[in-house]
UniProtKB/TrEMBL annotation:
Ranges where the ABC transmembrane type-1 domain occurs: 78-302
Primary location class: membrane
Keywords, in A-Z order: Cell membrane, Membrane, Phosphate transport, Transmembrane, Transmembrane helix, Transport
Cited SUPFAM superfamilies: MetI-like
CDD domains for this protein: TM_PBP2 (cd06261)
Pfam families: BPD_transp_1
Family: Belongs to the binding-protein-dependent transport system permease family. CysTW subfamily.
Segments of skewed composition (Low complexity): 1-15
Gene3D superfamilies documented for this protein: MetI-like (1.10.3720.10)
Subcellular location: Cell membrane
Protein name per its UniProtKB record: Phosphate transport system permease protein
Amino acid sequence: MSSSPAGRTASAPGRPRAPRRPGDVVFSGASLGSAVLILLTLAGVAFFLAKEAVPALTADPEEITGGAGFGAYVLPLVFGTVVSSILAMVVATPVAVGIALFISHYAPRRIGSAVGFVVDLLAAVPSVVFGMWGLAVFAPRLGPLFGWLERNLGFVPIFGEASATGRTLLTASLVLAVMILPIITSVSREVFLQTPRLHEEAALALGATKWEMIRTAVLPFGMPGVVGGTMLGLGRALGETMAVAIILAPGAFSWNLLGSGNKTIPSEIALNFPEAAGLRLSELIAAGLVLFVITLAVNLLARWIVARRAAFSGAS
């Protein structure tokens, strides 16, 4: 009979499709246009950097700053950029995760909301303010710590003679850690709050303490979000300009984190770009291209890590 379920099922494919509403068409087109626009923007930036960097990459090594070629010029800058960013990430991530867990699972609602508001407000502080704070307040007070490191770990090359001013790569790294703390905290907090309530209650029902519940249910579920927030913070640290430029003192390159002289790619560009011209301008743009590649690699690595972790966390 045509009124049977089988008959209705058989006739369903023959029904005409509902017409698309104008709002759906506009929204779909706008979404597609936005996606294409961001891809074109990224491609345009990459093309500009590559095109303008060619003179520096093909120039005679003696014409490059330092007289030893572009590689010798940019490698110390890469060292300062990567090391300061990684140190900032290593210092900030455990603190940020601890703050996020306190807000989401330990603090009373009112206190958690207040702490979360303060953390979010910290992200709105301009980088130049962090730089001035690091130079005027933070750097002088790190002198005793740097002296202790020099006396006890001076045999390690990265802990050599300490600068009396405190304007070192390690100081810049600690300031960067404070700057990226709100990013990692905010992302981690939101992910921890999304942990399925049944997972938490199941762990508690099996006799787990609150910390064991967090360790077995909350942290595995939120790990992809923590990794994503950490990589966002790392990207912010890699591209930070003014705070690092204000803190670091000029000088020759050194492997010593406690001495002055190290630079990062963003600070090098910020300090020299306004007066640069000709081949010097091409050098700075080529350094920007290197930073662009490093940042792109960090983001691709983050996507890969998150994709792998999501399969084991229950987040997918």
